[in-house]
Amino acid sequence: MTQTPEGQPTVRIDGADPILLPWDVAPERLPFDVVSGPVAFECASGDRIEREYTGVAVFDLLEAASMPGETTHVQFESANGDLACIPLTDLSGAVLALGDGPGTAPERPRFVSPHVLGPRTVKNVCQLRPRTLVADADREAYERLPLDE
């Protein structure tokens, strides 16, 4: 788990200007605009979940870290090593949501997007990595999902 020197859990956003963002703070103390609203996605079971989420827009974080212009995907890593590699086109409306019930630690965010299936909505996110994949690359080679185990 990435932590600040004071032991505070963080999320690292890689880019030309990486950010180490303290996450276990009240939303109003985050140095980004906090957004709220419904996000719906499909679980592995096929059920559709729609919840109200409060968090930070993923594109705001990537922009602040100076995501490389050639980026095609973003790899989300959880504190326990799960990885999901998401195309930029699927990040419209994506949020790093503040605490999301069972399975998400209160001091860790969950990645949610209306364009991403449930197994790839990573819980307990600790790092975002911009990736540049060639057109025919298999993004699953950059993933380690709970269903893979």
Structure described in brief:
The chain has one helix at residues 58-64, and strands at residues 10-13, 19-22, 35-42, 48-57, 73-78, 83-87, 95-97, 110-112, 125-131. The chain has 149 residues and is mainly beta. It is globular, with a radius of gyration of 14 Å.
Model description:
- The chain is globular.
- The chain is mostly beta strands.
- Helix content is 5%, strand content 34%.
Count the strands? Answer: 9
| Head-to-tail CA distance between termini | 21 Å
Whole-number mean pLDDT = 85
Largest sheet: 5 strands, mixed
What characteristic shape results from the CA principal axes?
globular
Strand order, largest beta sheet: 2-1-9-5-6
The Cα radius of gyration reads 14 Å
Topology:
Elements: E1 10-13, E2 19-22, E3 35-42, E4 48-57, H1 58-64, E5 73-78, E6 83-87, E7 95-97, E8 110-112, E9 125-131
Parallel strand pairs: 1-9
Antiparallel strand pairs: 1-2, 3-4, 4-7, 5-6, 5-9, 7-8
Key phrases:
four-stranded antiparallel sheet; mainly beta; five-stranded mixed sheet; 149 residues
